[in-house]
Design a protein that fits this description.
Elements: E1 6-10, H1 20-32, E2 37-41, E3 55-59, H2 65-74, E4 80-83, H3 86-95, H4 97-105, E5 108-111, H5 122-125, E6 128-130, E7 148-153, H6 162-171, E8 182-187, H7 193-205, E9 209-213, H8 217-225, E10 229-232, H9 241-248, E11 253-256, H10 259-265, E12 272-273, H11 278-290, H12 292-305, H13 311-328
Helix pairs in contact: 2-4, 3-4, 6-7, 6-11
C-alpha cells in the first residue's frame, strides 16, 4: 500500500495564543488527516531536522519567511503554498523584503476572502485561490433582557483598533431608544500594554464598557451567541474568523468598511461604518437598537452568506489545494471522497 504523503503546516502562532492563525492550522490539519500525514509546527524544519515533507503550507508571509526560505532552498522542486494574512496583504508585502521573497518562493497562494485577490499583482493572481474559513454552527441564545449587549472579539493590538470601540462605548447614551442600557463586551488578550491600560481605564470609568480579557474559544462563542450584534472594528484583516463565527451563530455584524470585512459580508452589506470612526459606529449601533426592521435586515443579509462558511465547504477547498500541490509534483491525484474521521459540522 502506498504511504500517505507528508505535509507540514507552518504557523507562527502558539496554541495558547488562541488566535486565527493557530485555529486555521489546526482546522486544516483535521481536514487533511484522512489523506496525509500532517504536522503543525512553528518553524520548518522542526527540531532542526528535515521532516521529509512532500509539501509545505505556510501561514503568514513575513512571520513564516525564514521557514519558507529554508524549505525552498532545501527542496526547490517541492510545492509550497503560502496563506496570506491581512498584515501580509495590507502592510508587510510593501514594507518587508522577507515577505516579498516568501511570496516569490511559493508555488501556490491562498487568500481568505475574495476582495484580497485585488491586492495581488497580476502575476501573483494566477497562483492564487480563495479558501474561505469555516465555523461550526452554534444557535443564537436568548439575549440579556436587562441590557442591550454588543460584543467585540479581538486581542488588544493596533490592527484590531480597540480604541475606536472604547471611544464608541464612551459616546453611547446611558439608555438606547428602546429603553435598555447598552453594554459593550470586549473579549481579547492584552497584547499591547498601552491598549490594555486604555481598556482598564475605560472599564473603570465607563459603565457601558466591559473588558472580559481572554476567553477560551467555546466561552467566546457562548458570549457571542447571547449578544445582539458583533462589532468588528479592525483596520486590517485577511478574513476575520470571528466574523464567520458570528454569521454561523446568526448574530448580525457591525463592521468597519475594509476589504477583509467586505470580502466576507459582501459589497452590498448595509452594516458597515468607516474604519476608525467612533461617532459613525455609535450612530450604527443606535440605529440597530432602535429599528428592529434594520436589525432583521442585517440578520437576513448574514443568513444569505452563511452556507459558504460551513466546515464541509472549507474542507473541500483545503483538500483540493492539497491535491493540486501533489499533482504539481507529479503525485497521483488524491481521492476527494476519502472518509473523514469525524463528521463535519453542519
Amino acid at each position: 500500500m502506498k504511504h500517505k504523503p507528508r505535509v507540514c503546516i507552518v504557523t507562527p502562532a502558539r496554541p495558547e495564543a488562541n488566535n486565527g492563525n493557530w485555529h486555521t492550522a489546526a482546522r486544516w490539519q483535521r481536514f487533511l488527516a484522512p489523506l496525509a500525514e500532517v504536522d503543525v509546527v512553528q518553524q520548518w524544519p522542526s527540531h532542526g531536522e528535515d521532516d521529509g515533507a512532500d509539501a509545505l503550507i505556510a501561514l503568514h508571509a513575513w512571520r513564516s519567511a525564514a521557514s519558507i526560505e529554508r524549505f525552498h532552498a532545501a527542496h526547490p522542486e517541492r510545492p509550497l503554498a503560502l496563506v496570506l494574512t491581512g498584515t501580509d496583504l495590507y502592510r508587510d508585502l510593501e514594507r518587508q523584503a522577507g515577505a516579498r521573497h516568501a511570496l516569490q518562493c511559493a508555488t501556490h497562494l491562498v487568500v481568505l476572502q475574495q476582495e484580497a485577490i485585488a491586492s495581488l499583482g497580476p502575476g501573483d493572481r494566477a497562483r492564487a485561490r480563495v479558501i474561505e474559513q469555516s465555523a461550526t454552527r452554534i444557535l443564537r441564545h436568548d439575549p440579556a433582557r436587562s441590557s442591550f449587549d454588543f460584543i467585540a472579539v479581538g486581542h488588544l493590538r493596533e490592527a484590531k483598533d480597540p480604541l475606536t470601540l472604547i471611544a464608541a462605548a464612551r459616546l453611547l447614551p446611558q439608555r438606547l431608544a428602546n429603553g435598555l442600557p447598552p453594554r459593550v463586551l470586549h473579549i481579547g488578550a492584552a497584547l499591547e500594554e498601552d491598549l490594555a491600560e486604555a481598556a482598564r481605564r475605560a472599564a473603570a470609568e465607563c459603565p457601558r464598557y466591559r473588558w472580559l480579557g481572554s476567553r477560551s474559544a467555546p466561552a467566546t462563542r457562548r458570549w457571542m451567541a447571547r449578544s445582539r450584534a458583533l462589532v468588528h472594528m479592525s483596520r486590517m484583516e485577511g478574513g476575520a474568523h470571528v466574523v464567520i463565527e458570528a454569521i454561523r451563530s446568526r448574530v448580525p455584524v457591525l463592521a468597519s468598511r475594509i476589504d477583509g470585512n467586505i470580502g466576507l459580508l459582501g459589497r452590498d452589506y448595509d452594516g458597515y461604518f468607516p474604519a476608525g470612526d467612533a461617532a459613525a459606529l455609535v450612530v450604527l449601533m443606535q440605529r440597530f437598537a432602535a429599528e428592529p426592521a434594520f436589525a432583521a435586515h442585517l440578520a437576513a443579509q448574514c443568513a444569505v452568506r452563511e452556507p459558504r462558511f460551513a466546515p464541509a465547504a472549507e474542507q473541500g477547498r483545503v483538500r483540493a489545494l492539497l491535491a493540486d500541490l501533489l499533482a504539481s509534483r507529479g503525485e497521483q491525484p488524491l481521492r476527494q471522497s476519502s472518509p473523514s474521521p469525524r463528521r463535519a459540522s453542519p
